[in-house]
Each structure stands twice: as structure tokens, then as C-alpha cells.
Amino acid sequence: MTVYTVTSEIFTENKNAYIIKNGNAISNFIFKYPSYMIKPECFNNIIIHDNDDDIDIDRQQRGKLFIEHHISTELQYVGLQVWRGALLLADYILSNPDLFKDKIVLELGAGVGLTSIIASFLAEKVICTDIDIKGILKLIRCNFMRNGVYVKSKVYIKELDFLNLQWPTFYEKRMNEATVILAADVIYDENVTEGFVDTLTKLLNSKTQKVVYIALEKRYVFTTVNMDVSAPMYEEFLGCIKKKQLNWHIEYIKIDFPQYFKYNRVKHMILMKIEMYIHVHK
């Protein structure tokens, strides 16, 4: 049987990567500091001088994440790569610190942990989750350790499988404390998409009011069924919400907020904000 692999565009766009012996890559994701991060006490900054012994202002205003990830994978293991949605969501977090500062943040399908690392600079607590396949949770822990200078919150790295909603009581209690839920590029397979919707449904039905931010890229294909171009997984996600008659308010956030990371922010990228409708009884 032929095994098909996929490779994220980020690996070809990012020129700051090197290969390590186990076949993975460690990429340097350079980003500009937002103004609130440019402080003498942040990250124990060392003053950097150029060749003329002048302070290098540009380098003082840049950060760098070291992220280990796979170069290419089979479709079911794409979480081991870095995708544009993670960087879009990271940009949104950096652009809107008040939405995330001192919050309890839960990331679903965190992949290699890039977005959670950025959230951990602002949040009170970050619960970073994914299904534990191919050592992905170990990879997340290593990436948090590599970027410890940015981690200002308590961090919990736990397994969460969209296809298994039987959570231990103590674990469910911890996740339900979250007021902000993040997910980037988790919509790529029909079964996983339905499981993701079921997971969100369970979390949004808790007593704690939550807001969900979902970043994804519409991936268009030509289908012979409709003889037209469509984005099947995006449409599958919306169709699943409609089929289950979920009482969700969906808002599409304009993606014209500042871009701090270097990547191609293509026009097909989407950032959705989801909340439960609240019924007010008069």
C-alpha cells in the first residue's frame, strides 16, 4: 500500500532551520517583540552591540523560538509539524494581550506547542493538550524547556484525544477552569473534525463561560462530485456544527492585525471566535 506524506509550507518558507540526528528539524521562529515585551527586565536581555559598538536596536526588539518538529509526516501525524494556523494564532495573542493576560488557557491539538508557548507569556495557566502519538507530548515538553525564557505561567501538558470524551474527574475539572480555548489547524480529517466538535461541545457546556479561537487555512481542492473547487474540511466543520444544531455564536475575526512572526499570511487563512449563546430570562 502506498503511504502518502505531507509537508507543511512553513518548512519551505522558514530559512532558519537545521536538521538534527533523529530526522527532525529544529526551526528558529523569529518574531518582533510587541511594545509591552520590550522592557529591560524581560527575558534577562543582554545589551547587544554592532560592529561599531553601537547598540543594535533591531536585535534588541526580536525574539526567537526554537521549535523541534518533524519535516514531513503521514496525514494522521500532521500535528508533529508546524502549520500557518499556529503562527496566525500566536500573532493574534501577541496583538491582543488583554484577552489572554492572567487567563487560564486550554489549547486543543497543540501539536509541537508553539502557540501554547506564546500564550504562556501572558496567561496565568496554560493547559497544553494533544493525543499522545509518536511521542508528541514529549516533544511539547522539550520545546517548552527550549523556550523557558518566554514561559511566565504555570504549564500542564496532558493527553486529550478528540475521539475519547471519557475524562477522569480531576482532569475534566481542570480543563473546565479554562476561560480561553485555542485550536490551530486541527481540522483536516472527517473523524477528527467530528471529534473536535464533540470535544468543544462538552467544554462549552460547562459552568465556566468560555471563548474559543480557532485558526485554520482553507485548503481548496477540485472535486468531481460538484465539478468545482471547494474547501472540504472547512465545510465539513461548519456542516458538523449545523448537523448537531449547536447553539454557538461564530464570529470571523479580520486577520489584518499585526504580524509578528515571519510566514506567508495567505488570504485563505481564517480566525474564528466561538461562544455559546447566552439566554437571558426576563
Automatic annotation (TrEMBL):
This is Methyltransferase-like protein 22. Pfam families: Methyltransf_16. The keyword Transit peptide does not apply. One of its GO terms (biological process) is methylation. GO terms for cellular component: nucleus. GO terms for molecular function: protein methyltransferase activity. It comes from Habropoda laboriosa. InterPro entries: Methyltransf_16 (IPR019410), METTL22 (IPR038899), SAM-dependent_MTases_sf (IPR029063). Keywords: Methyltransferase, Transferase.
